[in-house]
Write a structure and sequence with these properties.
The protein is α+β, with helices and mostly antiparallel strands. 26% of the residues lie in helices and 40% in strands. The longest helix has 16 residues. The relative contact order is 0.23.
């Protein structure tokens, strides 16, 4: 019985040396193909430029051998950072994302800390009545 437990622990230790979590930094690449012919530029009078905004989001994940506990995906991290940045506005013009990942591998566990940050200039779309008033 002791020999079986010792062998099991040995196998888990060896397996933990060969485990890794690899995430791609290409999380921002969209899988949808958008035709530029369908994009129509907005009239300059239909929106107002506000100030610079930024938002960030963090995630912490623990791997017990092959079992992930906690954390969110990279896309979810970017979405949370963007949502925090656009709070109270309609969007961000040319958002700039930064991504940082720290991985601490140990024998049986691995700790992964991720942080995403977005910066850009916010804008607000004008209502139809505001737009019509300025057109006159």
């Amino acid at each position: 019985m002791k020999s079986l437990i010792t062998k099991g622990i040995s196998v888990m230790l060896v397996a933990s040396l060969f485990t890794a979590c690899i995430t791609s930094k290409d999380g921002l690449k969209s899988e949808q193909k958008t035709s530029t012919e369908s994009i129509v530029p907005a009239d300059r009078n239909s929106y107002s430029i506000l100030n610079r905004v930024e938002g960030d989001a963090t995630s912490f994940k623990v791997w017990l051998t092959f079992i992930p506990i906690g954390g969110i995906s990279d896309r979810g991290l970017y979405d949370r950072a963007y949502k925090e940045a656009v709070e109270g506005t309609d969007g961000i013009i040319l958002p700039h994302y930064t991504y940082k990942r720290v991985r601490i591998p140990l024998l049986i566990t691995t700790f992964v800390y991720k942080k995403a940050k977005v910066e850009g200039t916010s804008f607000v779309l004008k209502s139809d009545s505001e737009y019509r008033m300025e057109k006159k």
